[in-house]
Amino acid sequence: MSKVPPLSRQVLSNLELFRGLSTAALDDVVASASTRAFARDFRVFNQGETRVRAHVLIDGWIRISQSGSDGAQIVVRFIGPGDIFGAISLFTDRRYPADADTLTDATEVSWSDRALLDLMNNHPQIAINAVRIVGQRLQEAQHRVRELATQRAERRVAHALLRLLRQVGTTTSRGIVIRFPLRRKDIADIAGTTLYSASRILSAWERAGWLKTLDRRIVVQSLSDLMRIAEDESGQDITPLPP
Amino acid sequence: MSKVPPLSRQVLSNLELFRGLSTAALDDVVASASTRAFARDFRVFNQGETRVRAHVLIDGWIRISQSGSDGAQIVVRFIGPGDIFGAISLFTDRRYPADADTLTDATEVSWSDRALLDLMNNHPQIAINAVRIVGQRLQEAQHRVRELATQRAERRVAHALLRLLRQVGTTTSRGIVIRFPLRRKDIADIAGTTLYSASRILSAWERAGWLKTLDRRIVVQSLSDLMRIAEDESGQDITPLPP
Asked: Which ranges of chain A have pLDDT less than 70?
């Protein structure tokens, strides 16, 4: 973790949380911001920690993962450039609800709880933007609830990959690449299945030539096969069997 | 559906969305509110409908349920007195994300999208309250995701009942009563299991004397047995077998 120069109004005005603000308002936002840079595999905050701040990622990737009282863990989401994280706890029980770990080198900007509330009171558009951002995440979470409640593992893994491709896929000559390193355990966690099942499914898809792993990134080579599995309602596994 | 008299400042000041507002601000809120009364089994809005409003339930109970493109349906939540519903869509894609049906006679108050945005811009505390409410729901949804991803059906049904008891349970001489009528399908939907599994589990618990159904309400008679199942991590079914 190292100190980096403060951010410009220009960078902040492109963030969804500060969309639609006047120049004067953006100056207020800049004035109370702190910027930090992290190396890969750095723990930004721990689940349960109480000195909460509102964070926005400027650059890099972060994994948010949550453990239950029974020890079971899920990946809540991956945070990319422009996304807020850790901020909702300022409004609820003032404890971070999850762990945050960098997946790559990363730069964040953050505000104290007091600074964010002052900004929202002086510039209500920030609070309105926050309702929209949190509302979108709530809709996504409800979508995941429905998938988990109603779909079998193979279909959920296909949905999880398609969601990642939409959010963070880049088309290259080799296929569509997910832009940050993912473990099979991450895929299992976001699809809500076991590491064993996710590995079995991903290995079968690799053998079928639908995807491969290059430099720790997943590269999807047959989007149409993944979409066919995501849409299939027969309830039967349609992954090719091992030879 | 019938027209009912407009609500008082007093009633609104008790709602979480309007917590901490001045008398003048509450007068603004009252001025743009519409109040409606519904009979039981009334469809308040349909999933996909675009003329969205921000709703707060004053009295009664409402079920919010969502269908996927594959037809699979889940109960998203039960709305009780004081809860907001349908309001998040004003900030996202401006379509109701789910159906809302009354479970009992009910009274709501609602605001147009324009009126709510004006209120939030003039009284930022309303937007800050909304971030807190939506943030709490997001945390609950992530909790459900973790349960669905990691727990077996019996444990999820126990968790779903315990959550309902905490939210809407009343202690009576006969046990703890869930205060609105629930179908077995509702329990299955919120626990993310099939009607068949939920019925099998609930019937076994009835035979064991842990709960019963009186006047379409579930009455829990052995909280400790439900808690034992909710906490069990052995992965084995511990519900008593049918005689």
From this structure: 1-6, 70, 232-243
